[in-house]
């Protein structure tokens, strides 16, 4: 996995390919951070397992997060350009917007809208910025209205 942000590689980590139907790719990977990361509403830490869903035709990815015992923590969604598979690597460009949905669905929150605004994407690539905002709106609606799990089936 290669996550690119602002034209540079943000993180590269190993993941196991579970499925690729030509449109959607699914990979599984352990938490790739060096240390635990506490967001206040969820904590990612060593031993957490991420099942990550990417699309070649959608402007987002969805990561199902489970603790080491297998209990679902929730879903962390990145707004991205459509994924590109290049040889053995899956490359995704992060566009700063994110969404969190807790396991019980009670907590759905938009994240990093300030980073997105500061990125300058709306000025440098207005079409991409509009696609990113539309993707965030669509994901939030799915997360709030119960269609989220069907997205991943």
UniProtKB/TrEMBL annotation:
Is Transferase one of the keywords? no
The upper taxonomy is:
Bacteria, Bacillati, Actinomycetota, Actinomycetes, Kitasatosporales
Q: Which UniProt keywords apply?
A: Hydrolase
UniProt-listed Pfam families: DUF402
Give the originating organism.
Answer: Streptomyces mangrovisoli
**Which molecular function terms from Gene Ontology are attached?**
hydrolase activity
Residue stretches making up the DUF402 domain: 41-146
What's the protein here called?
Answer: RNA-binding protein
Q: What InterPro entries does the database record attribute to this sequence?
A: DUF402, FomD-like_sf, Ntdp-like
